[in-house]
Amino acid sequence: METIKLEIDGKQVETAKGTTILDAARKAGIDIPTLCHDDRLAPCGACRLCMVEIARNGRKRLVASCAYLAEEGLVVRTETEKITKIRRMILELLLPVASTGPLETMAKRYGLEESRFEGRDEPACLLCGLCVRYCAEVKKKNVTCFIGRGIDREVVFLSDLSHTECPLCRECLPLCPSGTLYSLYLKGFSGGPEAGSNKGA
Amino acid sequence: MSKLNSAAELKKFRQDILSGRDPDKPCVTVCLGTGCLACGGEKVYQAFVAEIRKQGLEAKVDIRRTGCHGFCERGPLVVIFPREICYLKVTPADVPELVARTLVENKIVDRLLYTGEDGKKIAHEGDIPFYKHQSRIILGTNRLVDPTRIEDYIALGGYSALAKSLFVMTPVEVLDEVKKSGLRGRGGAGFPTGTKWETTRNAPGEPKYVIVNADEGDPGAYMNRSVLEGNPHSVLEGLIIGAYAIGAHQGFIYVRQEYPLAVANLTVALEQARELGLLGDHILGSEFSFEVAIHRGAGAFVSGESSALMTAIEGRVGEPRLKYIRTAVSGLWEKPTNLNNVETWANVPAIINKGAAWFNGIGTKGSKGTKIFSLVGKVKNTGLVEVPMGMTLKQVIFDIGGGITGDKKFKAVQTGGPSGGCIPAEYLDLPVDFEELDKAGSMMGSGGMIVMDEDTCMVDTARYFVKFLSEESCGKCVPCREGLKQMLLLLENICAGRGREGDIELLEELGEVMTEASLCALGTTAANPLLSTIKYFRNEYEAHIREKRCPAGVCKDLIHYYIAPDKCQACLLCAKSCPTGAISGDKGLVHVIDQAKCTKCGACFEVCPSRFGAVTRISGRPVPAPVAAGTKVQGRK
User: Fold this and answer.
1) Which residues of B touch A94 (CB under 8 A)?
2) Nearest of B637, B248, B306 to residue B446 by alpha carbon
3) Measured between alpha carbons, how far is B370 from B96 in angstroms, rounded to an integer?
4) First to last CA, chain B
5) What Cα–Cα distance (Å) separates residue A94 from each residue in A100, A115, B525?
6) Contact B405, B379 (CB under 8 A)
7) Which domains are delineated in chain B?
8) Pairing relation of β-strands B410-415 and B421-424?
9) CA separation (Å) from B485 to A46, A151, B388, B526, B556?
10) Is A64's CB within 8 Å of B519's CB?
11) What is the pLDDT of residue A57?
12) What are the start-end ranges of the E strands in B32-159?
């Protein structure tokens, strides 16, 4: 297997060609925060928490480490002032949606007590897409899906499929970082095709 | 029509067309672009057909349906060749007179001509200031062709660039010519076209694809639509030449479903090109084969982003994907794919025919050629303009656009569509090209140019564009989706008088992170309208937040209408215009607005005669207490 050498946070790291920066870093014991990443799923690059700075030929650039493949001689920095600023802002944007589980841990790590943005009291779907992609990529069932776009995007369970597929599976439920998936599942199970809607929850 | 099997046959076909045409024969061209159609162009066209028949002039006069001429403000437009007399705002009732006077007597009908600043009538189309200052390399042919007749395009030399490419040049020579020309992508990013072609050509993997991006979705922008509607063959010819240079045999034209006329004209163009052997197997008898399919977009703005567009053609939801491997290398079905905007493709035939040096001679150091802009908003001459890169904003807005409607003060121009920025009056001398617009905090984008006057609130403008983007973002990545959501909320609060100290700084911080961290170009540019308006109009934001005042008097929650008792002449005009019955008053009695009932529609403000000026708009200070009911007016004016 072809291996490549790169530098992550000053550490010399050797990894197989085709490895992402995120994987290479984690193997070297460097923790890059993520929300939408799961080793079993294709990189999606949606949460942007895993952004890192790469430098090649003196040119610096920010990339999503979950998707960017490690390159020979690449110099990676996973915590710079700019990256911290980005992560804090992304967390501030997510906390008003749900401040549970991994969000709480990451907020502590970045010293955030509360967000400057308005939100609601009850946690809601963070739209990380773990359930949707797990159902599509691992289970190949496509019971959960996104509907709407922009700020109206939401996750729904398609009720007809849900009746036949979900009772025997439910493997997506523990993946949910906001803990709201079970209620979406129940709504989808009991209603029409779009009954799992998060709206007005 | 039978297939043309060589460059010589194409040449002969063209000569046959030309020999059957008399350049001195009068030809009535009626603009039937979407703008002129909307204001009755079709009826004008039909009236000409009927009148010409009635006068028995069918053999002596040609009549041509064309695409958009550009001067949309004054449509329906009629240009009568060979003298190129341009008639504006023509109605069917005008047609008998135009036929009798201009076609029969060869005289000009003054009342339908353009009137210059000095009051003089201008008959010749090219002398009208709107057209005079333009360089219409692409748009100029619109008025010369019926888009549904390939003969019209071929008569102008159409497809000769394709023949030259196929039989005189190698694919690499074509590619080099485009590289040397300095042509850059007209869809917004301005990436060098030749370099992009080269990347796809050299990328491993077969087949390779070429795509026309016609998913024009910016509010107020219709450059691409007009080119596709008016001269679809120019785009198609460019595409075939590009495919030859790149080594692609399948192309796609991704066009919005909302552009029915463009789809119809494109469909006809493809059929006619196939019939003549200009598309399909062994084009013009050469070894090169190429096919094109039209893919109709389902109305998502974000599908104009190249990777989202390709995902949509693949049959999936049009969402951008991670592009650490460029689409030029791994695009449609993970094959090397070259995507260019409509206008980029339309430039190619001219570059091949006239050469890179010619194209290179137009424009600025870094931006070559011309650019089409849709000049809209508070400008006198709304329409499509094509100017050499480097013309100043002032020339575009004032010399071509004729200045601001109602002779109000210019405040800002928004360039680059919803992801562009607002440029203030201090920058009117800015030469318009890729670099300069970027430096000013805006961008070229696909060529939208929205002119704003002094009555425009810049906070409200930012709110409008952020709302548009929050609905049109795909919603996949956090900075774009949640960022736009919070940005919109903050802007709505500021417009409603709920803004707080620190909001501006928070918005700036948020905007910077969105720009740095979003997944695709929609997200990385989404903060531009906000950041550019804060940069140039920070005082307006501060007035909204600190004084609860909207300086332009636009934000309804921050304004009140009030009738000054000492000025009211009790004319009843305002009371009659009020849709909610909020104005009380009678003959001789001062009118009073009931603030609780007032919906701030501004109707009273509009109708109050300017010599009275009694109805005023108040912002940032309390409304004076109403006068006692039955107060008499103080002296008539």
Assistant:
1) 478, 482
2) B306
3) 39
4) 76
5) 10, 9, 21
6) yes
7) 25-81+85-123 (3.40.30.10), 150-360 (3.40.50.11540), 370-453 (3.10.20.600), 458-546 (1.20.1440.230), 556-619 (3.30.70.3270)
8) antiparallel
9) 16, 6, 38, 12, 22
10) yes
11) 84
12) 62-66, 78-81, 85-87, 114-115, 121-122
Q: What is the SS3 assignment for B535?
A: helix
Contact between chains at B470 and A63 (C-beta distance less than 8 A)? no
Nearest Cα residue in chain B from A153: B475
Task: Quote the tokens at residue B539.
Answer: 């005082």
CB A37 within 8 A of CB A50: yes
Torsion sign, CA atoms B179, B185, B189, B190: positive
pLDDT band at A195 (very low <50, low <70, confident <90, very high): very low
Q: Do domains A3-79 and A130-196 have the same CATH topology?
A: no
CA A33/CA A52 separation, integer angstroms: 10
Return the H-helix or E-strand segment holding B442. Answer: none
The model's pTM: 0.91
CA-CA distances (angstroms) from residue B562 to B410, B469, B496, B551, B628?
Answer: 27, 36, 19, 16, 14
Centre a 10 Å sphere on the Cβ of residue B470 and count the other Cβ atoms it contains: 23
Question: Cα separation of B530 and B463, whole Å?
Answer: 8
Q: What's the complex ipTM?
A: 0.94
Ramachandran assignment for A50, one of left (phi > 0), alpha (psi -120 to 50 degrees), beta (any other) = alpha
Task: Answer yes or no: do B478 and A82 touch at CB < 8 A.
Answer: no
User: Are the beta carbons of A154 and A129 closer than 8 angstroms?
Assistant: no
A-chain residues near B479 (CB < 8 A): 48, 86, 89-90, 93
Instruction: With beta carbons under 8 A apart, name residues in chain B contacting A67.
Output: 322, 324
Q: Is the pLDDT of residue A196 over 60?
A: no
Cβ pairs bridging A and B (under 8 Å): 97
Residue B435 carries which side chain, given as an amino acid letter? E
Tokens read off for B173:
């020579």
CB-based burial, B473-498: b 16+ in 10 Å, e otherwise: bbbbbbbbbbbbbbbbebbebbbebe
> Do A90 and B479 count as a contact with CB atoms less than 8 A apart?
yes
User: In the CATH scheme, what is the code of domain A3-79?
Assistant: 3.10.20.740
Place of tokens 């700075």: A53
Cβ distance B231 to B153 under 8 Å? yes
Residue A189, classed as helix, strand or coil, is helix
| Whole-angstrom distance, CA of residue B71 vs CA of residue B212 | 26
Span B109-130, average pLDDT: 94
Encode pLDDT of B26-66 as tens digits. 999 999 998 999 999 999 999 999 999 999 999 999 999 99
User: Please, are residues A17 and A6 in contact by the beta-carbon 8 Å criterion?
Assistant: no
Looking up tokens 């007035």, which residue turns up?
B543
A17-46 average pLDDT score: 95
CATH topology (fold) of A130-196: Alpha-Beta Plaits (3.30.70)
Q: How far apart are the first and last CA of chain A?
A: 50
How many DSSP H helices and E strands does chain B contain? 24, 19
CA–centroid distance for B502 within its chain: 36
Mutation site for B-interface testing, chosen from A151, A155, A198, A199 by largest number of B Cβ within 10 Å = A151
- Sorted by where each begins, the domain ranges of chain A are 3-79, 81-120, 130-196
Rounded Cα–Cα distance for residues B428 and B450 (Å): 14
